[in-house]
Amino acid sequence: MSAHAVPPSPEPVHALDFAPLAALVARAFPEGGAPAYQPMAGGASTRRYFRVKLADASAVAMFVPDGAKPEEVGKGGPAPTRWPFLEVRDLLAARGVDVPRLLAEDTGSGWLLLEDLGDATLASYLAAHPHRRQALYVRAVTDLAHAQASLATLPQASVVAARAFDEELLSWEIHHFREWALEARGIGLSTEDRLAFDGIAGRLARRIADWPRAFVHRDYQSRNLMVRPDERLCWIDFQDALLGPRVYDLVALLNDSYQVFDRPFVEARLDDYARARGLDAVERAALGHEFDRVTVQRKLKDAGRFVFIDRVKGNRSFLPFVEPTIAKARASLARLTEDDDMRALSSLLARVLV
Q1: Claim to verify: residue 166 and residue 256 sit in the same structural domain
Q2: Each residue of 166-190: pLDDT tens digit?
Q3: What is the domain-level CATH number for residue 237?
Q4: How far apart are the C-alpha atoms of 88 and 98, rounded to whole Å?
Q5: Do strands 36-40 and 111-115 pair parallel, antiparallel, or not at all (unpaired)?
Q6: Which of 333, 8, 329 is nearest to 173 (CA)?
Q7: Residue 76 reports pLDDT greater than 80
Q8: Rounded to an integer, what distance in angstroms lies between the CA atom of residue 52 and that of residue 22?
Q9: Contacting residues for 315 by C-beta, under 8 A, at least 6 apart
Q10: What is the pTM of this model?
Q11: How many domains does the chain have?
């Protein structure tokens, strides 16, 4: 077989055409021989992943149906000239963030070939090495602080700069909770409660939207951080990055639906972040209040999203996290008793949730 010959492809699986992938593999590994493709578990998106096994190497293939679909582009952004995954990957790599190496691409056919990072997500790594939890979360919040600093300015045409957590998107996410975590589960709101909820949602969305904006990964949590052999953390699933509140990724990480932390652990990691960003005592206190308000917004959205994934996409694997996720939002509400809206929302949830 010549160095550039394309090895035989397996039969298409679920209408996937593997011939373009085989060509990418031959380009990236010209002496690698015929590849074998092993399906890999994915998340809630339509993207599909395969581990490409060669005699002396491996890689990960990512297939995106129909290219950069709206889900891939992200709400509110312009149609991209290049896949957001690739554009954001290049931006992060240029600013010193650890991301997977790109080995080859054929976006016209929907395929990318990426560095194989193994299977050690932060979540799975901690399940096997629980004693490393503090060290790795210190690293995660410090990495985030440094990334936000390095990404404080963005290229004018960046897809990240073109989209943001504005009032409309934040409000949509809060109502995603009402629609799916409440109404879709048969928990209806009275006319009075619906009016109250709508008012609170609107005011919370406006408040958060008015805060200064920073780079936001959007899903910076234990399933989207890969642990390298030296325990460096590599970011994945960053294609929906946008501008938003500085605490958004901290909330995703420290109020992760898939992890349980006590409050002292969370406060200590917020302290670590504050030190890395050079925040003084007043700014650190403000950070904590922002963290709790975004927790309310983000965790309610997450609970609704988990039900949506079940009802619309037929994936029930996220349902066990619905109630724990709502509990995280309610815990933050309990710390925001000086805020009339947060007290009212806490009371409303106490009445309608059993």
Answers
A1: yes
A2: 999 999 999 999 999 999 999 999 9
A3: 3.90.1200.10
A4: 12
A5: unpaired
A6: 329
A7: no
A8: 10
A9: 44, 309
A10: 0.90
A11: 2
